[in-house]
Structure formats: structure tokens, C-alpha cells
Design goal:
The chain has 260 residues and is α/β, with parallel strands linked by helices. The protein is 16% helix and 24% strand. It is built from 4 helices and 13 strands. Helix 2 packs across helix 3. The radius of gyration is 17 Å and the shape is globular.
């Protein structure tokens, strides 16, 4: 299994000169199975980086529908998914509020909008989910490849400190044994007190979640839009000192399972 990160930024895209190394595109992530199966997670502006790999007729899973996670949908015109999926339901109506006149002049192409209640098989990939704390609700996803034993968990837009101990334990169980944990690290630890209820975590929260689920590699992403490359470098060093395997990832990063 291979994971490709299209966009690592949170909240809204940025394009300042001091933010080019980690990239200014908002979140989108592609999982590819050894059999060629593809599962796309969210459609932020980062889908632009994935267009060369995406095939039409695939599956697009939404963690939630805040604008930074859906604004790249029109870019998928030539690789339009057959299924737009949200276990929370109501996705068709939510997207229609944005992608229709007068907000957007072209309606989205036809697709199925399933709201599954059990894990979904996408070729050789199995996708499951878990609710996490974020305003208006959000899902974390787990992608497993049973044939190889590889597993990755995507937890963007989660406020770890707002989850009850029971909810944190449930997430740790959900993510247990994942080779890769992709986790929200929007804030520095000292910034969290002033941003309670914003729905995001710090690199220290991400490290705690990774330790509790036993992840081998931790990708820190959803970088704050004002954060410069130099500032993210500092965060990366602090996180790596706290959790071996922690990396602040840039748009375009790739991870490949060592499982055969």
C-alpha cells in the first residue's frame, strides 16, 4: 500500500514565499493498493497534485465538508469519482449548498452518495472509520490492506484534548497497529489553551495518540495557514524528539508499506 499526500495545509490555501517547502494546498490524500485500487480522502485544493495519478470512477471519502476539504472538487472533472462517500450521511445535500448557482456556476457531475454503516472494500483495500471531535463532526479513516497486513489511519481535523478519555481509548483501539498515523498538528502545545473548541490538535497531542495506538510512523499535517516553513521545521524537530518516527510532512509526500 502507498499513501500520497496532496495537500498538507489547514483552513485555507496559502502561497507566500516562506511557505513553499511544506506547501500551501489544503488537505487531500490518496491511498493506493498493491492491486492498483485507489481511495481518495477529502478534496481540498491538494487534489491538484494528485491529478496525474487519479483515475476516473474511483471512491472519494469525506472526513467532513468544511470548505478547505471540498474546495478542490471542481478540479476532479477528468477524474470524477463514481462514489462520494460519507458515513455521516447527508453529503449530497451538503455539497449541493456550495456547488450550485449562485455560489458556483457549474453543478457537480452525477455520482452515488452512499452513507455506509460497515467497512467498505475498495479492491484490495478495506476502509473503516471512527468519529472524532471537531465542530460540525468529523470522521477519522483507517485503510487496511489485508493481503499485505499494511494499515494507515487518517485523522485530520481532530481536537484530541476535547475527546473524553473513553473516546481517546476508542480511537487508540481503532488505530492500534497502524503502520502510519496521519494526524492533525495545527497548533503548538502552548497555543492550544487560547484555541479550545477550534477542533484541532498540537504536535504533542499527535505524539500522544501515536504512542497510544502503537503507530510506527507519525505524519504531522494540517499546518496552520500562517505557519512558515522555518516554524514548521522547529515543530518537526520538537516532535521527533518526543516521538521517534514523527515527521512534519509536505505536500507531495509519499509513504509505502514495508509489508509484502
Amino acid at each position: 500500500m502507498k499513501i500520497i499526500l496532496g495537500g498538507a495545509r489547514g483552513s485555507f490555501p496559502v502561497a507566500d514565499a516562506e511557505q513553499t517547502r511544506y506547501g500551501g494546498e489544503t488537505f487531500a490524500l490518496l491511498a493506493e493498493g498493491a492491486d492498483g485500487a485507489q481511495a481518495l480522502f477529502d478534496a481540498g485544493s491538494g487534489v491538484r497534485r494528485l491529478l496525474g495519478r487519479l483515475r476516473p470512477g474511483g471512491a472519494l471519502f469525506f472526513t467532513h465538508v468544511h470548505l478547505d476539504h471540498v474546495l478542490g472538487l471542481p478540479l476532479l472533472e477528468k477524474a470524477w469519482p463514481a462514489r462520494l462517500i460519507s458515513p455521516r450521511g447527508g453529503l449530497r445535500e451538503e455539497l449541493a449548498r456550495v456547488f450550485a448557482p449562485p455560489i458556483w456556476p457549474v453543478k457537480l457531475p452525477a455520482a452515488e452518495y452512499p452513507a455506509p454503516t460497515a467497512p467498505i472494500e475498495i479492491g484490495g483495500l478495506r476502509v473503516s472509520w471512527q468519529a472524532v471531535a471537531h465542530p460540525d463532526g468529523c470522521c477519522a479513516y483507517r485503510v487496511d490492506e489485508p493481503a499485505t497486513g499494511a494499515g494507515a489511519v487518517v485523522a485530520t481535523d481532530v481536537e484530541w484534548a476535547a475527546m473524553t478519555p473513553r473516546a481517546q481509548d476508542a480511537f487508540a483501539l481503532f488505530a492500534r497497529g497502524a503502520d502510519l498515523l496521519v494526524f492533525d498538528a495545527h497548533f503548538r502545545p502552548e497555543e492550544c489553551a487560547a484555541h479550545r473548541g477550534w477542533g484541532h490538535s498540537s504536535w504533542a497531542d499527535a505524539a500522544d495518540a501515536a504512542r497510544r495506538c502503537g503507530a510506527r510512523t507519525l505524519w504531522l499535517m494540517h499546518h496552520a495557514p500562517e505557519r512558515t516553513d522555518a516554524q514548521i521545521d522547529v515543530m518537526a524537530a520538537e516532535a521527533a524528539a518526543a516521538f521517534k518516527g514523527a515527521v512534519c510532512v509536505a505536500a507531495g509526500a509519499e509513504w509505502e508499506s514495508e509489508h509484502e
